[in-house]
Design brief:
alpha+beta; two-stranded antiparallel ribbon; 2 helices; 2 strands; 29% strand; globular
């Protein structure tokens, strides 16, 4: 399961780093980074329980999507790359290891 929002919404059994993805942010341009260079870490999470309530539920929503639908919903290329390459590789490795 890939989680793109804060992890406090769910009980998580384990999580694995899919990769770090550089991107440019218009909102994080400042004197230290005039280009707005940022790096996002993307994690795959094994969800063990879905909580009915969480602290920030008044400002955030939870959505479960298939990978193709999630890819279509991405605003940035690095997000699509994380889903298409990172998550699919992670999932294939998990399935391979599960078979022994």
């Amino acid at each position: 399961m890939l989680l793109l929002t804060p992890y406090k919404k769910l009980r998580v059994g384990s999580w694995d780093l899919l990769g770090c993805y550089p991107f440019r942010s218009k909102t994080h341009q400042d004197e230290y980074s005039p280009e707005g260079l940022c790096k996002a870490a993307m994690f795959a999470l094994l969800v063990t329980e879905e909580l009915k309530s969480w602290p920030e539920q008044s400002t955030r929503t939870r959505s479960w999507l298939t990978i193709p639908v999630a890819v279509e919903s991405c605003r940035h290329p690095w997000m699509r790359e994380a889903l298409e390459d990172g998550f699919c590789k992670w999932h294939a490795d998990k399935m391979k290891n599960a078979k022994g």
